[in-house]
């Protein structure tokens, strides 16, 4: 049967309204929906569909299934792996979930909140705070990323050390399956042993198994005191020793432990010259730490200072600055965020998002630096990330004088060196950014045959027509 695009679009408009079906042959600019924010991936879309309810999503999915139209679920489109934009071939529509932005329930006594997939992360943080609670997921794109996207990629961010990533923050989901059925798993329970934990299938699946339309999430007591510190260390071994001491001393109050290499700090200083000097001496590595609790600020500061002084006495910390005001705290965390911005401004870097057992990180980095320098003379590794949970952003910037586009042609060769070493140490080539289009083909090399087979079996069982985000995660 011949596909009639205009008739199909007319049916879509009847389901969600004329103004919520955006098409390329009208005057709407679809570039924000069909291209990722890095400009690396882009594909044509038959339309961008903007449903406002689960029932509308259900109707659109059934309409798409009947005509064999593929659906690309999309939240804030802030991902780094091309999972939320169309592929370059095929009949596809973007299902943009930003209009699904309601709070369905805020249960303070149960410490839970149920929101729809299009709810903005920062708004959720603010909603929780207004109720005297904390939603701890925090990352650079929090002002525009949406909860559905955070779930689809199993987002991590700054406070995984204490609270876990998105997978640990979810109690229940509502999901529209590829056949249009609604799977209601919105249970606000911390204990439920009634069979398979189906929600976990969809978290981190990047929209390939179902479309998350709502989620019930955990909330926590809102800290009344926070303190941050910035320290310099000579080696990664010393950094891990500091982590051991801080966790032993601070316990659950210790919530973030970030690593910044000296070249990364110098790059920030280059592009953000107003960055103040924080320590009296330069060090090979820097640590940004945060602790928080529900007690008195001065007591928390005293505990943090005592733990830092113990590290100084051990010789693992060479120099340290403890923030004494909100303004100083903001300076420290702005520096961390500016590493990403400085890399964007510098251009020409090949990004990596790897995870390893914390104990193996020194061996990994110590092996990578000389190997990359030998393979690509003058290369500039920019290393930073969430050391507390073993996640490094090991980005490799072009040698000085090398054209950015020319450097990108070396991506496969650089990836092979870094990913081979990562997997050899029982690590992962994607810690928190997902797979999408970017790392899809590499899974075939780094996952076992049985892992890939099981993933394909699950995909085929739930989505036999391969209509949900085809070509993402799996090469299908």
UniProtKB/TrEMBL annotation:
Gene3D superfamilies listed in its UniProt record: 3.30.465.10, 3.30.70.2190, 3.30.70.2740, Uridine Diphospho-n-acetylenolpyruvylglucosamine Reductase, domain 2, Vanillyl-alcohol Oxidase, Chain A, domain 4
One of the protein's GO biological processes: respiratory electron transport chain
Ligase as UniProt keyword: no
Domain of life: Bacteria
Cofactor: FAD
Keywords: FAD, Flavoprotein
UniProt record similarity statement: Belongs to the FAD-binding oxidoreductase/transferase type 4 family.
Protein name per UniProt: Hydroxyacid dehydrogenase
């Amino acid at each position: 049967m011949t596909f009639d695009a205009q008739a199909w679009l007319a049916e879509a408009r009847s389901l969600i309204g004329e103004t919520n079906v955006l098409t390329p042959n009208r005057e709407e600019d679809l570039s924000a929906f069909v291209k990722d924010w890095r400009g690396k991936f882009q594909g044509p879309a038959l339309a961008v569909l903007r449903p406002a309810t689960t029932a509308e999503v259900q109707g659109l999915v059934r309409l798409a299934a009947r005509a064999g139209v593929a659906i690309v679920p999309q939240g804030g489109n802030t991902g780094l792996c091309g999972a939320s934009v169309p592929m370059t071939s095929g009949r596809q529509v973007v299902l943009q979930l930003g209009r699904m932005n309601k709070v369905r329930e805020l249960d303070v006594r149960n410490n839970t909140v149920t929101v729809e997939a299009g709810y903005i992360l920062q708004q959720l943080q603010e909603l929780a705070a207004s109720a005297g609670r904390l939603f701890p997921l925090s990352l650079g794109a929090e002002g525009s990323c949406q909860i559905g996207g955070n779930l689809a990629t199993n987002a991590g961010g700054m406070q995984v050390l204490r609270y876990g990533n998105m997978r640990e923050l979810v109690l229940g989901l509502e999901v529209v399956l590829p056949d249009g059925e609604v799977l209601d798993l919105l249970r606000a329970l911390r204990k439920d042993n009634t069979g398979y934990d189906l929600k976990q299938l969809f978290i981190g699946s990047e929209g390939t198994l179902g479309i998350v339309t709502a989620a019930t999430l955990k909330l926590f007591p809102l800290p009344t005191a926070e303190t941050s510190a910035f320290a310099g260390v000579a080696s990664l071994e010393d950094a891990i020793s500091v982590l051991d001491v801080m966790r032993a001393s601070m316990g659950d109050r210790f919530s973030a432990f970030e690593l910044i290499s000296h070249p990364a700090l110098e790059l920030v200083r280059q592009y953000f010259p107003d960055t103040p000097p924080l320590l009296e001496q330069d060090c090979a590595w820097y640590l940004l730490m945060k602790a928080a609790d529900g007690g008195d600020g001065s007591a928390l500061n005293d505990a943090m200072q005592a733990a830092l002084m113990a590290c100084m006495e051990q010789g693992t910390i060479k120099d340290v600055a403890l923030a004494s005001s909100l303004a100083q705290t903001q300076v420290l965390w702005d520096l961390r965020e500016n590493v990403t911005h400085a890399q964007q401004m510098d251009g020409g870097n090949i990004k990596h998002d790897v995870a390893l057992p914390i104990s193996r990180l020194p061996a990994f980095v110590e092996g990578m630096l000389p190997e990359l320098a030998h393979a690509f003379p003058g290369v500039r590794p920019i290393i930073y990330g969430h050391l507390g949970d073993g996640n490094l952003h090991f980005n490799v910037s072009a040698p000085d004088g090398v054209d950015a586009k020319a450097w990108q042609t070396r991506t496969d060769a650089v990836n092979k060196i870094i990913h081979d070493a990562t997997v050899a140490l029982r690590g992962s080539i994607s810690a928190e950014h997902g797979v999408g289009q970017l790392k899809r083909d590499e899974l075939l090399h780094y996952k076992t045959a049985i892992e890939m087979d099981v993933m394909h079996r699950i995909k085929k069982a739930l989505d036999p027509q391969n209509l949900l985000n085809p070509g993402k995660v799996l090469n299908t």
